[in-house]
Specification:
Layout: E1 4-7, H1 17-25, H2 31-39, E2 43-45, E3 48-49, E4 61-64, E5 70-71, E6 82-86, E7 90-95, H3 112-119, E8 125-126, E9 129-130, E10 133-134, E11 143-149, H4 152-163, E12 168-176, E13 183-187, E14 190-192, E15 200-202, E16 210-221, E17 224-233, H5 240-247, H6 262-265, E18 271-279, E19 286-290, H7 295-304
Parallel strand pairs: 5-9, 11-18
Antiparallel strand pairs: 1-4, 2-3, 2-4, 6-7, 7-11, 8-9, 10-11, 12-17, 12-18, 13-16, 14-15, 16-17, 18-19
Helix pairs in contact: 1-2
Length: 310
Amino acid sequence: MQINVLNADENDAGTRLDVFAFANLGGNYSRSYLQKLIDDGHFSLNGKPVKRSSKLKSGDKISYSIPEPEKVSLEAEDIPIEIIYEDSSIAVINKPYGMTVHAGAGIKSGTLVNALLYKIKDLSGIGGEERPGIVHRLDKDTAGILVVAKNDISHRKLSQDFAERRIYKEYAAIVHGIVYPQNGIVEEKIGRHPVNRKKMAVTASGRDSTTEYSTTQNFKTQAGDYTLLKIILHTGRTHQIRVHMAHKNNPIAGDPLYSKNTKQLNIPLMLSSVKLSFDHPETGGKMTFKIPYPDHMTKFLLKLGKIPPK
C-alpha cells in the first residue's frame, strides 16, 4: 500500500486534521470517507497515531494511505436493465417498475444494484467500497430515469446537487379524479405516518416539501375520472408525490399505500420519472434525459383514451 505525505505550513496552523485532509484531498474523496480513514488508522501525524480532531502546527508531516476498495457482499446478477447513457463518471438508467433500487431488510438479490454490478465493469471505489453510487432513489413501484455515480468525485458532486436542489426532476402520473386547480403547487410538510410506519403523511412536524403539478389531460370514463399530470419535484422526500396527491384527494392510480381504489383496479403504480436534467459532475456540461411513459402507463392510457403527445 502506497504511503503519501502532506506537509502543513503556517497557513494550516490550528486546523483540524480532517479539515486539512478534505482541503487537500477533497477533489477525489468525500469528507466522511476521509474521516473514516483517519479513524481507521490510515493517517499519521509526524509518525504517530492521530485523531481527526487533532490540531496541526506549521511543519507537521501528515502521512496517509488509501486502501483498495473493498468488494461488496452483494452478488452481480445478469438482470435486464436499460442503460440510457454511460461514460467514465456516470450511468443513467431507465429503472423498470417493480425493481428495488438497493438491498435492504430481507432483500439481497434482484435489485438495481445487483444488476449494475453485472452491467458496469469499471466501477471505482465509492466511500471505500466498489459499488454503484446510488445518489438518489425511486420507490420500487416507481419507474423511470435514475442517475448513478461511478466514482467518489461524481458521487459527492451529484449528492450535493440533489441536496441543494439543483437537479431538475420531472415525473408523469395518472391520478384519480379531475384535479382542481388544473395547475398548482403543493407545499405541505411530510413526515412519518403516526400510526402506519410504512407510510408517510402530511404532518406539521415533517420536513418542508414542494411539489409542482400541471394537467396534461383529463379523462372522463364510465369507470371513473382520471388526470394525467406533469409533476416537477422541488424537494425529494420519501413518497412525496404519492403523499401530496393523496392529500389533495387525487391519489396516484394503482398506489397500494395511499389509494383506496387500488384493489379494484389491480394495476401497477401509475408514476414514472420521465425527465432528469443536471450538470455533469466532472465536465460541468448540461445533461438532459427524457424518456417515454413506461409500458404499463401507456397501456392504461390507451384504455382511458387517446395518449397526448409529449
